[in-house]
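Quick one, T. Sequence first:
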Amino acid sequence: MLPCGVFNRKYSQDMAIVRTRHQWGILIATFLLLLILPSFASNYFLSLINFISITIIVTLGLQIISGYCGQISFGQAAFMAVGAYVSAILTSKLGLSFWIALPLSGIAAGLLGIIGGAPSLRIKGFYLAIATIAIHALVMWFVLHSQVTGGVSGLHVPAPKIGPLIFKENKSMYYIIVPVMVLLTLAAKNLTRSKVGRAFVAIRDNDLAAEVMGINVYYYKLLAFFISCLYAGVGGSLFAHWMQMVHPEQFTLIHALYYIGMIIIGGMGSITGVFFGVLFIRLLDELVMFASPPLAAIFPWLGSQPAAALGVVAFGVVLLLFLIFEPRGLAHRWEIFKVTYRLHPFAY
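Structure tokens:
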């Protein structure tokens, strides 16, 4: 729906992502803000932006497999670990450049995702969810017991560099992480509008009907797994080089549950919902972190470091409230708001 008084005269205009001058103005202003943000933002804020951007990349992959294709996956943290460790091994042990390791880590995670998604033709729903949890357990067992991955000690990862320029601070890594996030968001948005995206939605709504219509269900399910895991692998590679180390404790099943919660809170089947869900949960975590010291002083029985426990409790309460009162997520509220202001002054 377009604002009152705005009409499309060409089919290309109707299919465009950015369709009005107002939208173009907001988009250009956003890009300019992202470009100049490191010049005045604090190191803490840039660190938060980097973390949010990496989480958005990983959650975009989960949105494609779960929100659009309807395949439940709890293995996103494991595939993120695959990308992180592959990138770490290629750069620290084999001496490859980060710029080569980044796409290779995504491809490696994607290929493993195809293997993990192979049973998806015969199992679905709860059983597929259990299968992805098993994949997570197998991946993390290998990480913990392999000498190549460093076992429980993890691996140190070199900082990316271009010639003499080394990206080892939040400000410099910002100019790698955020552009990759923007490009992958644009790719995901266009994917969902393509033939492949429509096939994903058809499989999600009714896989039997999709097969009757001529859609190769098995092929598209495997493709969805590959794309989802590729996103997780790229996010894992960026995370490893941003943190400059990888450790098994960075990729637990709790992290996978958080990614699921983010797309539920943001809105299933919505690229915009990924941003809403990630921002909501990450800012909630920051709020809990700042609120925990005063709460510990007021309620001594919480202990000296209640942030970890309170974070999980807050996440659970918020997720429960969204499932009961707003199951379609924040993206649904955003769509309602857009319809309201676009119909102005004829809101009635």
